[in-house]
Amino acid sequence: MRSFDSAEELVSALRAGAVTSVESTEEAIARIERDDEVINAICVPDFDRARAAARQADEARARGEDRPLLGVPVTVKESYNVAGLPTTWGMPPHRDYLPAEDAVQVSRLKAAGAVVLGKTNVPLGLQDIQTFNEIHGTTINPWDHSRTAGGSSGGSAAALACGFGALSIGSDLAGSLRTPAHFCGVYAHKPTLGLAATRGMVAPSEPALPVDFDLAVVGPMARTARDLTLLLDVMAGPDPLTLGLAHRVALPPARHERLDDFRVLVLDDHPLIPTGSAVRAGVNRVADALIDGGARVERDSPLLPDLAEAATLYMQLLISGAVARFPTDSLEQLRTRVAGLSAADQSLDAVRLRAMVSSHRDWLETNARRELHRHAWRRLFTEFDAVVCPITPTPAFPHDHSPNPMERHITIDGLDYPYFDQLVWAGVATMPGLPATAIPTGPSPEGLPVGVQLIGPMYEDRTPLRLAELLEKKIGGFRAPK
């Protein structure tokens, strides 16, 4: 049974003739048909075309061809356009939308020889930390069915945890790669902003043009750290319609190859929200492994940008962009509510509310402040190679489908906090556009997966990815749910 083999292991087996793509694909399909009725990760299966692609992969290998993912079964987040399959983003008015061409990343997967098994479930409009929608229902956490798999790449994370393909591709604006990986015990990498082309990862109401939305990236998900690098190498590169006409990607190598050469800043406290005990323990497991491996570990630095201001900037950029793409129907009511806010109210709820009615001038001012933070990060990364910190304050939380997410809460060690405040840790990397690798650290006392993120310098994605590989050897990695 190879359902839980890494992509790297599967590629080696395919090259050695120990297994065929048809066999691997049939095994993945059988596992999906057996287990996914409960998990609901694969919302749009494409088994007939997958079988045909697997046969073609085996024929190509018999002719002596070799490509990075030739014959490897993979899944694709529902939000990517795949020609002939519906792209809905979970929005009922678009349940019948069929794109005419593949997203650029789907094209790259196929060119690399991957076998696409189907598409994975997402939340409505990709706008939640959970994965459920009216069209495709709810994706559950494979470790605890009463809890969420995370969002918005929750279907992809759950699929990997269950052995439904060796790799998946997702996207990340508010932790949408990292949070599901953290909740489901798998790996994910949020690339540097702009590293991987996003065309065709677009809402069905919008044309698939080469537009790079602020903060948003596409990236790889896998069951091992090395597989993230394998898939990122397929995904990286500008859009061939724009920058790709003149630019090529040449990522620098990792800063270090050995753990004892790394300089790491470890954070587990945020000024705006507490870190739950289970996640704090996960951060400390990583810190202990780093120290045991000889790395230089610090718990604080005067070079660290102000995390409270960073969270405010992130919320301003995130919410203003979301409202621009998905306009609200009650703009005047929002303006009235904002006018009633006290100037002294600087809570994240107030920040989000003000951002919904912000002007272009407001955005430019926020963006200028972001550039100051980016420069501060450059200075920090002259003294450190990576930053270890939480992804969210808790492991996977119970399903909460109450209709107004602004009225939901997240419970941290028995106390409630505003639901969207948990995004502040994701924003540490997202706001300045830094690369961040999500890795599992072991289970919580309740047996739930706990992950952390390794944040690296801009366009030095191989540095956190290499650190992830080294930590996988020290503390272990993916464990399949029982």
TrEMBL record:
Pfam family, one: Amidase
InterPro entries linked to this entry: Amidase_CS, Amidase_dom, AS_sf, FAAH2
Alphabetical list of Gene3D superfamilies matching this protein: Amidase signature (AS) domain
Domain Amidase, first and last residues per copy: 23-463
Name of protein: Amidase
Organism: Saccharothrix mutabilis subsp. mutabilis
